[in-house]
UniProtKB/TrEMBL annotation:
Coiled coil: none annotated. This is Fungal lipase-like domain-containing protein. Keywords: Membrane, Transmembrane, Transmembrane helix. The lineage of its organism: Bacteria, Bacillati, Actinomycetota, Actinomycetes, Micrococcales. The chain crosses the membrane at residues 90-112, 133-156, 196-218, 261-282, 312-332, 369-390, 414-432, 439-460, 466-485, 505-529, 580-600, 662-681, 701-721.
Length: 959
């Protein structure tokens, strides 16, 4: 490599991009914090260089400007709309609430794992509509859970009919004395007013979720190149019709209409609350109709209603109609970027026609959205006012005959119907990449809530029994069709995550985690409210009444309306939540057993060496066998006995972590089974007696404690993990991966930081090369040096530049990645975004879960035909301007093309021993730029770029 020359003006920009570890800029540049200076950007995204005059013996080669791009704050720091940066208690509360939006983030990941190139019309599987409908159900599950706590537990069970204790003037108006003292005064309110207030609290929870989901928004106005702004560049290229999704214009330019989804989810939630409230008050005065089980069989739908009853009926119908209308609109909404139309001679006329059509569509959609939202809001306000002025007697929210089996009748069947639909959509998601057509699954999904409702309302009716069997048969048919379709895709499914069932895995995790949060919330609140935390929450002996009255009178911070209850509060947990708690605890125990078994398997084989390159029976690349021995021998010869043992231990640890795909797949099936049990599992205490009832009660008691404690520890870890920095998102790896793609499936999902990162990175490249109109010296080139997830960002930025002045083949740019997950994870989980047909690399088989080396399977297949990123980075001499480093001791880093060297020589082994360390240290996921292999490959890229850059600038003038 040529020596450094500080006097030469740089003509190569080495732009380093960090990964999931959020490496500080100084560490990326190999310097101390005081030796670097920020040259562009702000607190969220910034570019850094070494300070002038800094003596760096490991500095860049001559003529190279080394910059570090820091983007991690966009994924991990948040501001509250209207408040900006906050700290203290508010910041801790917001960090705790971030846990609630994790299921929405998984739903958004499922949206982008579906088949993005599926056909439209009757051949479509409507997979995007499936995931968006799934996201709407997640919102309704949150609203139902909140309503269960506020209406079904607190409003219906904590405020009892007024009664005066003999010999005192104290009224028995509260059972749940653990409630905050501020709510004691609500005991004086009429039941209707109190119910309306708690319903407003349930609706307000949705607003809070929307605000939390907006705390990570990043604003950025991307700087377009002059050619792109003029509508020139590669727009006339015939290859544009084959461009991948990430190369299509406007993908990273906030083209997703998540704002419309936000309002639609709000309207559906208001409609659901309206229907549940009106349903309850429609039957509150009818004997035997305060419990939903057997509702229709008891004749609750028969008889005549007075004027008030007919009004409640219309409100129920109106609320259901709003939910159905929103579901239809959410399913039909198109959010992903369209494939660009073929180029026309008159580009201006085409663009004007497209703009006019889009404007007309937006106006029509805006009016429809406004009508649905206003209808939902009007119904919610009307039912709230009607409840507030209704002559509701004390105790009207309780079950019949003073029992509280299902204290709020409208809440009983709704959660089960929502969970049933979530399960069915998970099954449909298993066939999303198998292209199971919408006309097959849609009728089953529509029939499912009808069958659930019939099963609850008419449990013994003959017609209902036949309808339930018909629904079960159709669901079985759907499962069989999905399995058959998956088998038909066996030829390509092995190249995709979880054999092409990636959407199912992400949806199952989202549904299971959402239900886990719901169950922990309900059972935890019930356990807290009926705990003996206050002296009033216990059976009161006659002689203690006066003492309790004195305690209450002396408590000036509390409204003296609640002092005691005649009996200890025993609250009823609605059906389904305790069942899921038991099933989830049992399932997680199985999951832990599976992980421990894998760990024992790895421990038992720890003495068996893992080779550098996983063995394969045969390889279809000519010359690979000749390349491999010399490549491996050069690294192994440098290792001594102690180093060899340390490296083998590192390889075993990395191999265990690289089974993540299979382990996550097992977790998704366990969560799906828990959801099924939450629906079908009966309550033995009500059905059976003896040992079964006692065993179930014991299981409920311990599983409730386990679920509540687990979620509590989870939230506590979130709060403490981000406490060192105001509003710093914890678990950076989770947020970095979950927030990478634009939110399109759920409006409350964590915002996408890449909508700023990619345009900002592209803007820096264009500015250095002069593609944005900035005067630039000819002959400049760029090397994107990206680590881990930074490699995915770099690929997205390169694809976004395909509409620039050099089109999809710019010889002035090269790519150097290391420790990246492009092939093993992103390429398998999102084939249309980062798969072999996009990158041009060889497909990766799935890791084997039980073998010692997870990658000892069939060799990868050849890269598919078509114009890809590798083609755009390959010059006339067939030299690929892409190099990638990897090592077997890296637990999350993989080759981008293949373990076995190919003639293109993209992948290169890096040293597994950390360089320049006093003590022996095995290198894992970091330290690639410090290796000798990095310097060699960087030098090769720079020499190639300079050669091609001189040729390119002589033949193609810049803008």
């Amino acid at each position: 490599m040529p020596e450094r020359d500080a006097t030469r003006e740089p003509d190569v920009l080495e732009l380093r991009i960090h990964g999931v570890s959020n490496t500080p800029p100084a560490a990326m540049l190999g310097l101390r914090a005081e030796q670097v200076v920020q040259v562009d950007g702000d607190d969220l995204g910034s570019f850094w260089v070494a300070r002038p005059g800094v003596d760096d013996p490991h500095g860049p080669p001559h003529g190279v400007r080394r910059e570090a791009y820091s983007w991690g704050a966009m994924a991990r720091l948040s501001t509250v709309p209207g408040l900006g940066k906050v700290s203290g208690t508010i910041a801790g509360v917001i960090r705790a609430l971030w846990v609630l939006i994790i299921p929405f983030g998984f739903a958004n990941v499922a949206y982008w794992s579906r088949d993005l190139e599926e056909p439209t019309g009757r051949r479509s599987s409507a997979s995007g509509g499936v995931v968006r409908l799934f996201g709407l159900l997640l919102t309704l599950l949150v609203v139902t859970t909140t309503a269960t706590v506020t209406l079904g537990v607190v409003a219906a069970q904590c405020y009892t009919p007024r009664a005066t204790l003999p010999g005192t003037s104290v009224e028995y108006v509260m059972r749940c004395t653990a409630l905050p003292s501020a709510l004691d005064s609500w005991a004086r309110w009429a039941t209707g007013v109190r119910t309306a207030a708690y319903a407003a609290v349930a609706a307000g929870a949705l607003i809070v979720l929307g605000v939390i989901g907006s705390t990570g928004l990043v604003r950025y106005e991307p700087r377009e190149s002059t050619t792109k702004a003029r509508g020139l560049g590669a727009r006339g290229s015939a290859r544009q019709q084959r461009w991948p999704v990430l190369a299509r214009p406007q993908f990273w330019n906030r083209a997703m209409r998540s704002g419309e989804l936000w309002l639609l989810h709000l309207a559906a939630s208001l409609g659901a609350l309206t229907a549940m409230l009106a349903w309850h008050f429609l039957y509150r005065d009818r004997d035997g109709c305060q419990v939903a089980t057997g509702f229709g069989a008891k004749g609750c739908f028969g008889g005549t209603f007075d004027a008030a009853g007919r009004g409640w009926s219309l409100l129920v119908i109106g609320g259901v109609a709003v939910v159905v209308a929103v579901a239809v609109r959410v399913t039909a909404l198109r959010l992903d970027p369209m494939r660009p139309p073929p180029p026309e001679r008159d580009e201006a006329e085409r663009r004007a026609r497209v703009a006019e059509a889009r404007s007309s569509e937006r106006r029509s959609a805006r009016w429809r959205l406004l009508a649905v939202l206003l209808s939902a809001l009007a119904l919610a306000l009307f039912v709230a006012c009607d409840i507030a002025v209704a002559n509701t007697p004390d105790g009207a929210l309780e079950g019949s005959a003073g029992r509280a089996d299902v204290p709020f009748v409208g809440l009983d069947p709704v959660p089960r119907a929502i969970v049933t639909l979530l399960l069915l959509l998970c099954v449909v998601g298993a066939g999303a990449r198998a292209r199971v057509r919408a006309w097959l699954w849609a009728p089953i999904v529509v029939l499912a809530p009808v069958a659930v409702g019939v099963a609850v309302l008419w449990p013994d009716a003959g017609a209902a029994r036949w309808l339930r069997w018909a629904a079960a048969a159709l669901a079985a048919v759907l499962v069989v069709v999905v399995l058959v379709a998956s088998v038909r895709r066996r030829g390509v499914a092995h190249r995709e995550g979880w054999a092409g069932r990636g959407p199912f895995v992400f949806l199952a995790i989202a549904a299971g985690f959402a239900m886990l949060l719901s169950a922990a919330t309900v059972v935890g609140v019930v356990a807290w409210l009926q705990g003996p935390g206050a002296p009033e929450n216990a059976a009161v002996p006659p002689g203690v009444a006066s003492a309790l009255a004195t305690v209450d009178a002396n408590d000036r911070l509390r409204t003296p309306v609640t002092v005691e209850v005649p009996h200890a509060a025993v609250l009823v947990t609605p059906h389904g939540y305790s069942q899921f708690a038991v099933a989830s605890v049992a399932g997680l125990a199985v999951f832990v057993l599976v992980v421990l078994t894998l760990g024992a398997r790895m421990l038992a084989g720890s003495r068996t060496p893992i080779p550098v390159v996983p063995p394969a029976p045969r390889h279809d690349v000519a010359g690979a066998g000749a390349l491999l021995p010399g490549l491996v021998a050069g690294l192994v010869a440098e290792l001594g006995p102690d180093e060899t043992r340390a490296v083998q231990r590192g390889r075993h640890r990395a191999a265990f972590a690289q089974r993540a795909e299979g382990i996550v797949g097992v977790l998704s099936w366990i969560l799906l089974a828990a959801l099924v049990l939450a629906i079908v599992l009966p309550d033995p205490t009500a059905t059976y007696g003896g040992f079964a009832g006692h065993a179930w009660a014991f299981g409920v008691q311990w599983s409730t404690a386990a679920v509540t404690a687990s979620v509590g520890l989870l939230i506590t870890s979130v709060v403490l993990a981000g406490s060192k920095k105001s509003l710093a998102r914890p678990w950076g790896l989770l947020w970095d991966l979950m927030c990478f793609l634009p939110r399109a499936a759920h409006p409350f999902a964590p915002p996408c930081y890449t909508e700023r990162v990619v345009p900002e990175l592209r803007s820096r490249i264009d500015r250095w090369l002069g593609d944005d109109g900035t005067p630039s010296r000819p002959g400049r080139t760029v090397v994107l040096s990206a680590h881990s997830l930074g490699g995915v960002i770099a690929v997205a930025a390169l694809l976004a530049r395909w509409d620039g002045p050099r089109g999809d083949a710019d010889p002035r740019v090269a790519l150097l990645t290391y420790g990246t997950q492009l092939r093993a994870y992103f390429g398998r989980f999102f084939p249309e975004l980062f798969g072999p047909a996009v990158l041009g690399t060889r497909s990766a088989p799935a890791p084997h879960v039980w073998r010692l080396d997870p990658w000892t399977r069939a060799p990868a297949t050849a890269n598919p035909p078509g114009y890809t990123l590798v083609d755009s980075l390959t010059g006339r001499g067939r030299t690929t301007r892409w190099r990638s480093l990897w090592r077997r001791t890296d637990f999350i880093g993989f080759p981008v093309d293949d373990y076995v060297p190919t003639p293109r020589r993209i992948d290169h082994l890096a040293s597994e021993i950390a360089p320049d360390t006093y003590m022996l240290a095995v290198a894992a996921h970091s330290g690639y730029p410090e290796t000798a292999q990095y310097a060699v490959q960087l030098g090769v890229m720079i020499d190639e770029l300079r050669l091609l850059g001189r040729r390119s600038n002589r033949s193609i003038p810049g803008p």
